[in-house]
Amino acid sequence: MSNPVFSNSDVFGEPRRGAKGGTATAPSPYTQYGAGGAQAADAASLQNMYNAPSASPVDTKRLTYTDVIMKTAGLFSLLVVVAAATWVVAPGLWVIGMIVGLVLGLVNAFKKNPSPVLITLYAIAQGAFLGGISKMYESFQDGIVLQAVLATLSVFAVSLALFSSGKVRVTPKFTRWVLISMVGYLVFSLVNVVLVWTGVLDGWGMRGGTLGILIGLFAVGLAAAMLMIDFDSIKRGVEGGVPAKFAWSAAFGLMVTLIWMYLEILRLLAILRGD
């Protein structure tokens, strides 16, 4: 997986194989394991099982799409509120928000079990970061933030529609291509930042002009591809019956990808406008 939030998770990753290459399967609910080995349940127990109503994912506290949607909506609502407050009151907090958000993002990405508190703090930090950085972009060109928000929502909707329709399938080859592209883009971005900070290049560095536009479009497309991989990871988690608590991890993973996409679109629009 390209998104570390999902790739480092034991529940959202690819199905694990057994020692001889077979897919591990869960024991049958009709078999009890004791010190003497497997013992078949008696006829009365089996009859009770058949007569009992089917348990829903909510009853068994398994992950559902509703869980993911509710957690994601809640975190983004908090992010928007903090971003709006930062925009109005203290845009300069974006630097602190960026640093804190980066640290919390790394901590949450590599935690095996989700921490609702740390994920919520990440949303707050990113809200402060996005509120301040968006205000700075808006000061360069009126309306650019609204355009970036609408564009991000549009790309998200198209990515979800393509994934849901099955027109774009997340295959191992597709995932491998995204991973290689992500590594290449990361190396390019780091080199560009170093060249700008050291004064070798000015302005957007290698991100300016026609090349910058092409790279920006590529980055947005890459973020959209990562979204589809995120959707596939969540689908695998729901179908695999993972615990409901991992809705926090799924929401966090989506938030990481969407924030990155928004920033890339914001930068692309600024380059197109020549600011």
TrEMBL record:
Residues 1-10 have a biased composition (Polar residues). Residues 1-25 are annotated as: Disordered. Keywords: Membrane, Transmembrane, Transmembrane helix. InterPro entries: BaxI_1-like (IPR010539). Pfam families: BaxI_1. The chain crosses the membrane at residues 68-87, 93-110, 117-137, 143-165, 177-197, 209-229, 250-272. It comes from the Bacteria. The keyword Repeat does not apply. This is YccA/Bax inhibitor family protein. The lineage of its organism: Bacteria, Bacillati, Actinomycetota, Actinomycetes, Micrococcales.
